[in-house]
User: Which sequence fits this backbone?
């Protein structure tokens, strides 16, 4: 049954090059659409594995889901996650210090210090405290660096070029519309000269906001879809996601570095210490070294899992925020569909450090097994499965 | 005796300080929400003015190709004049402005439908640019209005719900009007379609 283009709107003119302002009349569909046919903008007519996955996920969702619920939930979880991350970094620093720095096995010399319990405890735990302190200073330094230099570094890494309104009035207008809806200052607009389909936002706060889009994606989207993508990026800026993710990435980097250091020096320390303490019968220190090394082995994975969990949540939140700004979740849903079907997903200049910034994971594998790409929700993926993202968006239009 | 006095006096002082801090924080919150609304209104204003500025250009361009569509063109010009007048008269509320702007949007919509019938006009580079700018400005008005109304909604929730309503009553915070486009057909700002 053909679906009528939005009533009351003149049919598209004979100029196919001009993108249509919304609402977009879509060509009539020649296949009946199950479930979603009541949406204003029905999805493309050929049902793929992605379509099936989306339909399945929509059915599984509670009927009263709104973007406000999503935002509230995401915000709450974000606080929990960042707390866990900081605790992990500090405790790793403390353990590393306790094991690696000399002095942990030294006995308390009561002749040197007053017999104050607190001072005594501080003295005993001195190496651990130093470790935690060093970790604190290091992570603050790294955080400050990413705070002030992170955005520019990111833009340089992908060879993005800033553009002016004259070069692409439509793109500028769409960004302007979305930042007005979000109530933030106009971000700078960058083009990434690549044919892959992707986009990202950066800047530590709305005053320093930047949105960037690949030339490939820019050419492929209708105005509605472009609006959805830009709204997603503006939502990242508005939610201060970039600040969080930059700090988080820096912290994870530090933890990985430190763990590596502990693993490399830990073995040596353990052997030399056990030799020294053999006559004293001090097996506790050895045990501690072993525990520290185990922790150093596990910590990077835990840190990355937390980072990726966080990253996935932020993507959902930005999708919900985009729906709030455009009041048209179907636009972004349709854009995500195009992004998912992209045969050339790899942004050449992206790497593991920057992958989480993009709207769609630029490093995702494109194998023959299309289905796995859409459906798997792995602990180590920086982005949620695209079918789930589309389903959540379309659930808002019900 | 003295100790009891100190304990009770201290407790009383703490309660008073706590209360004052509470009132200050709510007062500041309401002020901030109000400032958000004002800022949101300023954003709408910028876009409305932008639209007033675009219209004479657009009318001139259309005239060059479709001069005998006088009726439609005049309707746009008079709707613009009326909107500008309502806009400049500071005593008019958001309601009256909404009505005038709604009419202007409708008149423009009719002009665009008319413009559809002139292929030469549509091929004109200048017209295409104006069209993009006007569509986007319509969208921006819509989104600025959406943002403003969200701000007003937040302010009104703060102003009318307990306990902040007590403070808003004490300092006499005024109710704020939503900005609605009167005509139901004009409610969707981006509904002006150029095909």
Assistant:
């Amino acid at each position: 049954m053909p679906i009528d283009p939005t009533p009351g709107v003149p049919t598209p003119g004979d100029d196919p090059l001009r993108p249509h302002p919304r609402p977009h009349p879509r060509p009539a569909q020649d296949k009946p659409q199950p479930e979603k046919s009541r949406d204003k903008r029905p999805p493309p007519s050929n049902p793929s594995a992605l379509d099936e996955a989306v339909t399945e996920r929509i059915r599984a969702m509670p009927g009263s889901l709104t973007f406000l619920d999503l935002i509230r939930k995401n915000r709450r979880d974000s606080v929990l996650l960042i707390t866990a991350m900081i605790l992990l970094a500090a405790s790793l620093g403390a353990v590393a210090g306790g094991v690696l720095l000399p002095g942990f096995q030294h006995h308390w010399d009561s002749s040197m210090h007053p017999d104050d319990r607190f001072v005594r405890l501080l003295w005993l735990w001195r190496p651990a405290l130093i470790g935690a302190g060093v970790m604190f200073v290091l992570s603050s330094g790294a955080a400050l660096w990413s705070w002030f230099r992170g955005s520019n570094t990111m833009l340089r890494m992908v060879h993005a070029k800033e553009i002016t309104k004259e070069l692409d009035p439509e793109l500028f207008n769409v960004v302007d519309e979305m930042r007005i809806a979000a109530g933030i200052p106009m971000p700078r607009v960058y083009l990434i000269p690549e044919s892959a389909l992707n986009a990202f936002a950066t800047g530590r706060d709305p005053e320093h906001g930047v949105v960037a889009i690949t030339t490939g994606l820019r050419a492929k989207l209708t105005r509605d879809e472009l609006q959805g993508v830009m709204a997603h990026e503006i939502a990242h800026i508005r939610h201060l996601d970039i600040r969080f993710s930059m700090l988080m990435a820096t912290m994870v980097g530090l933890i990985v570095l430190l763990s590596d250091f502990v693993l490399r020096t830990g073995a040596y320390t353990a052997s030399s210490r056990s030799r020294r303490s053999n006559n004293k019968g001090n097996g506790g220190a050895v045990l501690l070294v072993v525990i520290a090394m185990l922790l150093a082995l596990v910590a990077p994975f835990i840190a990355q899992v937390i980072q990726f969990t966080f990253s996935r949540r932020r993507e959902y939140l930005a999708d919900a925020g985009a729906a709030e700004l455009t009041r048209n979740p179907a636009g972004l849903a349709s854009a995500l569909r195009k992004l998912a079907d992209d045969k050339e997903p790899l942004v050449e200049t992206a790497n593991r450090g920057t992958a989480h910034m993009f709207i769609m994971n630029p490093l995702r594998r494109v194998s023959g097994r299309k289905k796995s790409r859409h459906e798997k929700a792995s602990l180590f993926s920086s982005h949620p499965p695209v079918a789930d993202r589309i389903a959540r968006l379309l659930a808002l239009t019900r | 005796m003295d100790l009891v006095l100190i304990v009770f006096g201290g407790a009383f002082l703490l309660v008073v300080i706590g209360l004052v801090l509470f009132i200050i924080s709510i007062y500041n919150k309401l002020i901030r929400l109000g400032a958000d609304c004002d800022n949101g209104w300023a954003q709408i204003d910028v876009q409305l003015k932008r639209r007033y500025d675009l219209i004479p250009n657009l009318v001139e361009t259309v005239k060059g190709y479709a001069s005998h569509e006088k009726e439609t063109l005049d309707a746009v010009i008079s709707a613009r004049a009326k909107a500008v007048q309502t806009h400049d008269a500071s005593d008019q509320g958001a309601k009256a402005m909404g009505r005038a702007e709604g009419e202007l949007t409708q008149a423009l919509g009719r002009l665009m439908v008319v413009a559809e019938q002139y292929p030469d006009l549509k091929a004109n580079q200048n017209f295409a640019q104006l069209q993009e700018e006007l569509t986007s400005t319509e969208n921006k008005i819509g989104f600025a209005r959406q943002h403003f109304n969200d701000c007003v909604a937040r302010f009104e929730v703060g102003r009318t719900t307990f306990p902040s309503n007590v403070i808003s009553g004490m300092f006499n915070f005024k109710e704020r009007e939503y900005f609605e486009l009167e005509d139901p057909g004009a409610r969707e700002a981006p509904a002006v379609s150029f095909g």
User: Anything to note?
Assistant: Residues 1-45, 367-375 of chain A have pLDDT under 50 and may be disordered.
